[in-house]
Amino acid sequence: MTFQRAKRMTATAAVVVAAGALPVLVASPASATQSACTTYVAGHGYFAGPKVKAACSHGAIDTGIGKAANPVCVTDLARVGVKSDVSLAACKRA
Question: Where are the domains of the chain?
């Protein structure tokens, strides 16, 4: 096997590995955390319809020492009648 052929094979293998790993590396965890938020809201007796799901799509803010509720999430949940203690806890899960 020539050096050029080995070099091409190595480059091809690297591209294949990168292409396989890229979706895993850039996948957004939003659906899982959005689900946790909506489930929390629903678990407290509220209807988790499209407005709640939209509010929960605003992810929590990582402060470096923990997660903080996204103000947009809290405000949107308040607009649909979710109490602040529930919305704060739910939005920390988003």
Answer: 30-93
Distance of alpha carbon 80 from alpha carbon 92, whole angstroms: 18
CA distance 1 to 37: 56
Work out the number of other CB atoms within 10 angstroms of the CB of residue 49: 12
Long-range contacts, 44-50 (Cβ 8 Å, 24+)? 44/82, 44/86, 46/80, 46/81, 46/82, 46/86
Tell me the pLDDT tens digit for each residue of 41-91: 999 999 999 999 999 999 999 989 989 999 999 999 999 999 999 999 999
pTM value surpassing 0.85: no
Quick one: which of 49, 41, 44, 50 has its CA closest to 94?
Answer: 41
Q: What do you get for the CA distance between the two ends of the chain, in Å? A: 53
Go through 59-87 and write b for each residue having 16 or more CB atoms within 10 A of its CB, e for each that does not. Answer: bbeeeeeeeebbeebbebbeebebeeebb
